[in-house]
User: Which sequence fits this backbone?
């Protein structure tokens, strides 16, 4: 029987399937961090249980760590306690931890792939909704709550109902200045912040196949922003080339065996999806969000849709969002001054993102009215950026290169955007207060963020790229 | 886990769509390492001003409204996987949340804590909001066994879906870990067969 990629991987991991019950799904790799794990460890203690398969669990500290002076003790008491608790729990339960100061430390969804832990065909979970990122390798990867973290600790399994499947095809060539972030913001704007709920999404089509692994991770990362539990892309030569030689990737005979299996991981030609959507890459412009959920996005030259054009039941919420942002119906965002630019998060903090920004800002300087933070996704990304001299370019441009962590994406540490200020951010959520109380977030690509940093206002990066070439 | 069978209560209406988990419990309150105490920060930035004084216009600060059922607009609980959102709602005294659509992870988290997420039709949700508009003390009756929710005043009733396994977990107060632990031998056999 023909199967979708999701079905192939799912079926290979079902321990037990029984009518009227969710499947018992085996989990290959469990990633954990300091914020959503302590209560799960506590639960194990209360039940008197060990971690069933500690070697299949990897920990790092990322959500609640400072991005300056990481080697000094964390100043804020609760944060220090939370990070220390992770260290203690990992020691007690025999889990490998890449904590602060470790050369492998970083955002959990950046380090998994770069260490070769994330592999095609795996099932992976983490107490973080952006676990969907790992789907870029052709893995089933999804975010879970803390009770489920405890479940995986105790049994290396999860009770899960098989999701519905959706295929999103993007075909054709992307225009100049348009990247993976624009693709995914475009899709979310088209199908809404809830349009993918209940589905696992497979991204396909020529525009997706032509993307690098970093770009594919950006796409899969934001699957959750349309409500989808996960998103994945069939592995191909680009995937295999990325994995080969990484720290924990299979090698030698193991590699050959793994590769032979990975090459079977694609949706069969006549596989049935519950839903199929098709988009044309040429229709996508650099995107920017204007509201307080990631579905409220538009091409950068467009005008904000009018409240009167919204469905009756949604008008109040829509108006509330525009009021929060301080934007008017039918207005354009071009030329709107910005206060902060944040380049980072599990969506866009990989070396390719930093290279793209560096190549754009080389010999340019940030506008005086803007504070620019670049927060690399991991120690390895930070080191690579320095090896390539990107740090010097950022310094000359007045951009501050900080140390790895989730940082201003969720404003859990001290990296917060002040009330009322506008931040063009390469992160994944523009919710009210996400980046700080009453902070206003505009989600965009690294290039669009870099353009805003240089001009001090919302700018169509394509015009700046043309100037360079003209 | 907390058991759930039947509940009759007035409601706290929050007619806003796409309420995300950052509104339910902002990230800066996720530093605690226990499950307790998140209720005081539920909807923190909608409920309190920057100086911690209550915002009188927010429904939870209006003594007219009270009850163990939170009723919210569609796509409730979107965003982050933080289970703290379910803990905060429960800690603030709610036993059920009604909406016309729930985000997946939130729904799972709620069920894993004995907080019942009830998905009703858009039309029935509108009826509930209307009933509460007319009479803030208007009560709902939730019957998990029968899978129904009833507006007591009008008698209007709708049935709701729930996975039969999760339903029995809620009624009996047991959780997924209790269930899977009984299957450990199967899990080990699965590992060996790979």
Assistant:
């Amino acid at each position: 029987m023909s199967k979708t990629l999701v079905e192939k991987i799912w079926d290979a991991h079902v321990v037990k399937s029984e009518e009227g019950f969710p499947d018992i799904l085996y989990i290959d790799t469990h990633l954990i961090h300091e914020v959503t794990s302590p209560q799960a460890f506590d639960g194990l203690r209360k039940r008197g249980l060990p971690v069933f398969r500690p070697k299949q669990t990897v920990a790092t500290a990322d959500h609640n760590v400072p991005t300056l002076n990481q080697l000094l003790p964390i100043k804020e008491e609760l944060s220090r306690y939370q990070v220390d608790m992770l260290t203690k729990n990992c020691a007690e339960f025999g889990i490998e931890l890449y904590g602060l100061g470790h050369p492998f430390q970083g955002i959990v969804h950046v380090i998994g792939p770069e260490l070769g832990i994330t592999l095609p065909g795996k099932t992976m979970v983490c107490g973080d909704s952006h676990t969907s990122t790992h789907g870029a390798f052709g893995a089933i990867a999804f975010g879970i709550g803390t009770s489920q973290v405890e479940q995986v600790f105790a049994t290396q399994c999860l009770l899960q109902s098989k999701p519905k499947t959706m295929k999103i095809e993007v075909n054709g060539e992307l225009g100049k200045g348009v990247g993976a972030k624009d693709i995914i913001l475009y899709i979310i704007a088209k199908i809404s912040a809830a349009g993918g709920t209940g589905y696992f999404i497979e991204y396909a089509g020529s525009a997706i196949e032509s993307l690098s692994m970093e770009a594919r991770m950006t796409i899969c990362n934001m699957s959750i922003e349309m409500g989808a539990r996960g998103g994945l892309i069939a592995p191909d030569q680009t995937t295999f080339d990325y994995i080969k030689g990484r720290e924990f990737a299979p090698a030698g005979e193991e590699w050959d065996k793994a590769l032979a299996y990975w090459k079977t991981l694609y949706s069969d030609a006549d596989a049935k999806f519950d839903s199929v959507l098709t988009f044309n890459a040429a229709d996508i412009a650099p995107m920017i969000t204007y509201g307080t959920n990631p579905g409220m996005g538009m091409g950068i030259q467009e005008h904000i849709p009018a409240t009167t054009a919204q469905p009756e039941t949604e008008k109040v919420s829509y108006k509330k969002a525009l009021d929060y942002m301080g934007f008017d119906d039918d207005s354009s965002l071009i030329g709107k001054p910005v206060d902060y630019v944040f380049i980072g998060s599990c969506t866009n903090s990989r070396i390719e993102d930093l290279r793209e920004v560096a190549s754009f800002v080389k010999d340019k300087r940030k506008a005086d009215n803007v504070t620019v933070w670049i927060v690399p996704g991991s120690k390895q990304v930070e080191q690579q950026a320095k090896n390539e001299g990107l740090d010097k370019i950022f310094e000359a441009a007045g951009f501050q290169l900080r140390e790895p962590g989730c940082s201003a994406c969720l404003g859990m540490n001290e990296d917060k955007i002040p009330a009322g200020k506008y931040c063009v951010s390469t992160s994944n959520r523009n919710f009210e207060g996400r980046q700080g109380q009453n902070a206003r977030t505009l989600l965009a690509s690294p290039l669009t963020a870099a353009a805003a940093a240089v001009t001090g206002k919302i700018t169509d990066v394509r015009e700046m790229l043309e100037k360079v070439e003209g | 886990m907390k058991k759930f069978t039947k509940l009759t209560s007035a409601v706290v209406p929050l007619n806003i769509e796409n309420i995300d988990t950052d509104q339910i419990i902002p990230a800066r309150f996720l530093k605690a390492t226990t499950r307790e105490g998140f209720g005081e920060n539920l909807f923190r930035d909608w409920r309190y001003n920057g100086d911690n004084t209550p915002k009188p216009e927010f429904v939870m600060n209006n003594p007219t409204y009270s009850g163990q059922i939170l009723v919210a607009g569609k796509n409730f609980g979107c965003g982050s996987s933080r289970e703290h959102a379910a803990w905060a709602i429960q800690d603030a005294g709610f036993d059920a949340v009604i909406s016309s659509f729930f985000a997946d992870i939130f729904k799972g988290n709620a069920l894993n804590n004995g907080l019942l997420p009830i998905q009703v039709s858009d039309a029935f949700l509108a009826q509930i909001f209307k009933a509460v508009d007319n009479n803030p003390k208007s009560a709902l009756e939730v019957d998990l066994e029968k899978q129904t929710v009833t507006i007591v005043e009008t008698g209007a009733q709708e049935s709701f879906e729930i996975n039969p396994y999760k339903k029995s977990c809620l009624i009996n107060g047991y959780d997924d870990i209790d269930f899977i632990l009984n299957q450990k031998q199967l899990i080990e056999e699965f590992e060996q067969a790979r």
Q: What stands out?
A: Residues 122-134 of chain B form the longest helix (13 residues). The domain at 6-193 of chain B is CATH 3.20.19.10 (Aconitase; domain 4). The CA atoms of residues 131 and 154 of chain B lie 8 Å apart. The mean pLDDT of chain B is 96.
